[in-house]
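Justification of computing resources. Each target in the renewal requires a structure prediction run like the one illustrated here; the chain below, 1149 residues long, is used simply to show the kind of job we budget for.
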Amino acid sequence: MKALHEEAQRAGGQEITLRQLARQLRITTSSLSNWLNGTTTPSQQSLGKYLSLIDYLEGRAQSPARPRREWQRLINAAIDESRSDRGGRPLSTSRPAKVAPLRYFHTADQYRPPELLGRQEHLDQLPELVRKATGYLALVAPPWAGKSAFLATFVRTYEADDMDLMAYFVRWGHRTDNAEDYLTTMVEQLCLHAGREQPSRADTATLLTLYEEAASTSISRGRTLLLVIDGLDEDVGARIGNNPSIASLLPRQPHTGLRVLVSRRWHPPLPGDVPQEHPLRQAEQIPRFRPSPKAGVLRKTALDDLAALFQDTREWVHDVLGYLTLAPGGLSQTHLLELLGLDQRNPPPRRFCMTDLLHSVASRVFGPEDRDPDTFVLAHAELYGVAEEELGPEKLAELSGHLHTWADRYKARSWPDSTPAYLLHHYQERLRTDGKIDRWLTFALDHRRLLCLANRGRADLALASLDRVMQACPAPADRASAAASRSLLNTRSRPVPREVLRALVVVGDLTRAWSLALSAVDPASKAVRLIEVVQAALSMGPLQAEAAERARRLASEAAMWAAHAQRQKAETAPTAELEIQALVPRAATMLAAAGSPGEAVRLLDTVDICRPENVAAVAETAALLLVPEPAVAAELLDELLLEAESHADSAEGRPVFAVEIWSAVATADPSRAESIHRRMKEFAESVALAAPGLTAVDCCALTASALAEAMPEEARQLAYTAMREAERASGDGDVTEDRLRESMSRVTQALLDVGETPRKVRALLSDAPTEDTSCASLSHDGRLDDETAAREAAEAAEAEENEELLKEMTRLSDLGDGPHLRRCLDRFTRRAADGDAPVPWLPFLAEALFGVLDPVEEVTSLLRTELPDTPLRLKILTSAAMAHADAQRHDEALRCAEGAADIAQHMPAPLQPENRALVAQAFAHAGDLPRARQWAAPPHGGKPFGRAGIPYRRAALAVEMGLEPEAVVARAIADGLPRAGLDTSGTQLLKALCDHATGARTDAQLASLEVAAHARLGTEPLFATGLALLWATHGDVAHACCTIGKLPDPAARGVAQSVVAAYLAGVPPHLDVAADEGHWTLSVLRALAHHMRPAEADGTTIVRNLVLEALTTDSWYWTLPVLGRTAPDAVSQVAGVLDQHRMARRTGP
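Resulting C-alpha cells:
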C-alpha cells in the first residue's frame, strides 16, 4: 500500500497528503497512516474504504499496481497474521504508531503571511528539489523578495512524513541574529531528535557531531533530515569580524540523509570564516525565484517614507530614526519621548502619534519575543543600513552617548519596574557587539538588573546573560559574581501557585500575573500557567478592547510555549507543573476563546487530534469555532466521530475511548447531541450484554453521566447497570484494585449525576475499595524519632496554613472580592518572602570573608541578617569561628563560638547531636577545651553506641583536630582511625595516604584505587575526588586533574576541582561534622592531607585554572575559601551580590 501511495505521488507530480486522502474517503488520518505504514489491518467494517483507497491511488498512478484478486489475497493474509498475533498492533496502543516526524518551526509563525500569493508553483516544487539535492540548496534573492514568508509557509505547511524538518530564522536585531543562539538552539533540538543527553555546554564540535547523529536517526526512521536556515545575511557575526558566523557552523560535509536549505541575499557574500571548500559555497540554487510584486511595493513605500523623514526639517524626527537604528531591540513611544527630552515641561506636539509619523518605516511588535509590547522596530534589515548611511557616524555617536546616559539613569535608580525591556537585555548585547567590554561587564553583572528581568518572568534571559559572562571572562572575580547571581536567581525563580496567578488577574494586576506565569523555567510549565492566566481573564466576563487584546497576546504566547514543549522529550525536560498533557490543544482552546480562531486552527494542525489525551480539548476548541469557523469545527468533530466509530466497530478497538469521544462531541455541538446520545445508549447496553466486566462498567457509567440531563430515565438505568456490573467484577480475582477503584469512581460520579444523594451513594457503594493509609513516614523499627516527628509536624502545619490561604484565595477569586483578595495576596507574598529558600553557601562565604579580611561592616552584616533557618546560622558562626582561629584572631573566634552556643541553647529540644558537634568544634578551634568537651559529650552522659553514637564520635574527633591536629595525624598513621566513621572507600584512601606519609611505596594501592574509583564515577563521585586529592599529595597534579576530568557530573567535578585547588593553595580544611557519610569522609581526608603532606607553593596557575573551571558548575561556592586566599576581590563581589539580593527581597518586585 505504501509503495502504491508513493507511485501515485510520483505519477501525479505533487504530494498527496494524508489529510487530503482522509477527507476524500471520510476516514481518520491516524487510521490512514496506520494502513499505509502496515501498523494495522482493515476491519470488516472498514474493508470497503480500504478498497476505495486502492482504487483512488491506482487511478492517480494511471496503471493498476496489482489485480483486485491479488489485493484481496494480501489483505486476507495480513488479517490472518494480525489475528495470530504475529504482526499488527491493537488500536489500544498510543498513536501514532511510528515516531512522529520532527517538526521544529522556530519563529516561522512570525513571518508566515495569512496568504502567500504567487508562490504555489515554488511551494509544489520545493519538496522534490530537496529530495534531489545532494547536500545544500540555496534560495538566493534580493531584499524584500519574500524569502522569509516563502520559507515560513513551507515549513508550517509541509505535511508528508518522509522528512524530519528543523528550521531556524535569523533576524538582525533579534536574539536569533548570532551564532551563539544558533548553536544553543540547534544543539538542544538535535539532541532531542537523536535521543542524546543535553551537554553541559554547547560547542562547535558537539554541533558538528550532532548533525551526523541526527541524520542517522532520521534514516533509521525512513526519513531525510532537512535543516532550513533563513536569513544568513542578517547574522550579526557576518558583519563583525571577531565573532563567528552562523554559516560557519553549518555542516561541513554532506552527511547521508541530511539536506540543508538556506536563504540569503546576493550581497553581502558568504562570511570569510566559511572555508572555500565548504559545500555551502557550491549549494544548488532554487531556480526562477523572483521578488514578490507585493514585497517590491512594500520595499519602495518604506524606502520612500524613510527618505521623506530624513527630509523633514525637525531635528527630533531624525533623532527618532537614529534611536531606532541604534536600538534594534525596539523602543516604545514613551521611551522615545524620554530620549527626546519631551515631557510635561517640554510636551510633544498635540495629537502626536509615533505610528502616524513613521508610516511603513517601522513596525510594532506584538509577540512573545524579549521586547515590550507595542515597541517600534525598523521594518526591515535593509532600512537599518540606509538609516546609518543617512545619519552618518557623528550623529550616531552623539545619539549613542544619549543612550548610554539614559541607561545610566535607570541603573542609578536600581532598575525600577518602569525600566524599558531594551535596557534590560538588548542594550547589553549592543555593548558586547560594539566591543565596550568593561561597560558590558558592569551592566551584565548588575544583580539588580538580573532580578528585574527575573521579576518580569525572563529569568531565562538573565541566566543566558550570566552564561555569556562565564564564557567570555576568565577573571575569577567576574565568574564568582556571575555564579553567585545564577545561584540566587535559581532559588528566586520558583513558580508561585496558580491560585496566586488567578487572584492577580481578578484584582486587575494582569502584568504581574503574566510575569509570574513565566517564572517557571521549562516551556511546558510556562504554557500551563499562561493558559491559567488567560482562562482567569476570560472568566471575568466581557473584556474592554485593550484587555481583550492583551488576552489574545497572552493566548498566543501560551501557544508558542506549548509548541516549544511539544518538541521536547519529557524525560529530558523536567517540568515544574504536573498537568502538561494535551498542552497544544489546550492552548488552541484559549486562542479560540480569546478571539484568535485562525491561530487556533493552525495550532491544531500540528497535533494528532484523535490521541486520547487530546480529544476533550479538541472538542472544546471545536465548540468555540462553531461560529467563527463553522466548516473547520464541523471537520474536527466529524474526524472525532469517525475515530469513535472505528473503536466501537472494531474488535481491537477501545470501547471506553469511543464513549469518551461521543460525550465530548455531544457537549461541544448541541445540534448533534440527540443522535449521539442515542448511539451512546445503544452501544453501552450492547457492551454490557456482550462483554460484562469493567469495560462495560466504564461505558455504562460514562454514558449515564453524559445522558443525565437529556435522557434522565435512561441515564438512571445505565448508572445502576454500571453499579451491578462493578459488584460482579469486584469478585473477579484477575481484576486489580487500582483498576476497580478507577471504575468505581466513574460509577460514583454517574450515580451523583442522575440525582442520587451522597449519603445514598455511600450506602450503595459501601463495599467499594478505599484508599490505604501510608506507612512511608515510619522508620525501620516502626517508630518516628522525636526530632523527625517535630519537623514533620511543623512542615505539615505550615503546608496546611498555605493550603488554607490558597483555598481562601480561590474562594475570593470566584466571588470577585477584590479588596479581601488583595489582603490575602499580601499575606501570601509575606509568607513566601519569609520562606525563601536558604542560601546554602553562606558558611563557605563566612569562612572566606573572616579568614582573610578584617571584621569590617560588610562581613559582620552576614551575622546580623535575620535568617529563618537557625541551623544555617549555627553553621555560619562555626565557620566564622574556625576562620578567625586560622587567622590567629582568637578573641573573635571565641565570640563566634559563644554566639553559636547561644543559638543552640535556644533551639527546640531535644537538640540534635550534629548541632552540639558544631558548637563543640567552634569552641575547640577557639582554644576553649572545657566547653568544647562539654558540648561534644551527650547531654545526659553515657556513651551511645551504633549509629546513635556517630555524631558524638565525630564531635570528639573534631575537637581533637581543632586543639591537637598532630595527635590526630599520629593516631591515623598508627591505627587508621577505626572509630572515625569513614566509609569503605574512605578507609582505603586513608590507608594509602598514611602509607605515603611514612614513605612506603603506594603504586599498587593507587592502581587498585584508580580501577575501583573509575567503576564508580557515576555512583560514588567522592571516591574519585578523594583519589584526585591523593594524587595531588604525591605531587602528580596532572594525574589528579585527569581523574577529575573523568567525573561525568559537572557538580561533582566542581567539588573535586575545589578540593584539589584548596589543597594546592594551602587553605586549612575543617571537619564537616554535620555532613553525610561521604562528605564527612572527604573532610577527614582533606584535613589529614593538609597536615601530613603540605603542598608545594608553586601551583598558582593550576589553582587558578581549577577554580575557574569549578566556578562554572553548581558547586561553585566550594571555591570561596580558595578565592579568599587567592582573589579576595572575588569574595567581596559575591558578598555584594548577596547584599543586592537581600535588598531586593526586602523591597519586593
